[in-house]
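Tutorial, part two.
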Amino acid sequence: MFFMYSKVIIFYIPLFSLILTPMKAAEREKIDAPAPALSHFHGTKPRQVSPGVFEGEFTTDTGKKLHIRMQHITPELEKNLTVFEKRTGWLTRRGIGILYLFLQPQEENNYQIEKYGDDLSKISGYSGQALVDLKAKLAALSQNPKKLKMLECTYAGASQLLNGEKIEGCKGKNYFVYITADPTFSFSNTPSETPTDGTDTIKAYFENYGRIIMCLSTCMAGVRPLGKNNKKHDIGPNTYENRGIFRNPVSIINGGDSGLATAMHGFIGAVVQVEFPSKTVMTVSPIGSMQKILKDSLKPGQGYLYDKDGNKIDVTELAEISIIDQGNYNHIKVEAITPFYYGTQQ
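Running the prediction step on this input gives:
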């Protein structure tokens, strides 16, 4: 059976904060890639395996089978997520994360070298050919603007994984959702305490979290979100919010498995239809790439947002999508997003 453990919570970070700097037109064009068709994935009906824990499987158009889990965030799981958030920041925080020892010119690494030293073998936990292979993968990543931007998003996403627990009226109503190719993997078995004995290496991160491909959180409270996003919205009792979706840095480095964000939105929608039937609208504040997918995949009347002047606009009628036009809450009918997961097999 897939993983069996205590409840897990899911929550979603407002994606308006994920991209920290504007992008050039050429970079934006690469990120705003073609949206996957709704039949891209073929998911099974979500099943509850224990209180507050739901799981499912889906296949991609290449025939690869992936597993998805939505877990209620309990106090126990919150400890695991806290360590995951801190370790992801340690690894990927823009400019000062340990991976930047490999990703930027040596003269720009004063911060990391002063804090960690310049012994890459000790810092990485790898030696010999394994270290050579890691350097080669990161050298290739450093030349890929799209992947570098995705890597920047990981820290922003991880830093908001537990924000739902800080919102008045939202605590205890959050879930953590993740995709893995390993049906035996359980996030509950990841570290619940931050390493203090010198074992904090890139290798340790890869071993602890490398089987997570992508994750996010979702809040079922239907309350105003935490943060400075004051853009107009219709968040209320019939809504839930997906936040902070990000791809695991290990998955970014290794590549593959594209378009999974849509599957995650669809799976959550499928769970909501059964377990939270009063929730009929998903809200999300997407980055440009996801906004384009929504625009291209939805039909008129299935989703809307408000522009900067407070005018209501159908998602399908957006004239221009820019990576810097983030923070507008999309309100999407749940029935419109479940096909993202089910594909043609409902």
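The chain has 13 helices and eleven strands. In part three we will examine how such features are distributed along the chain.
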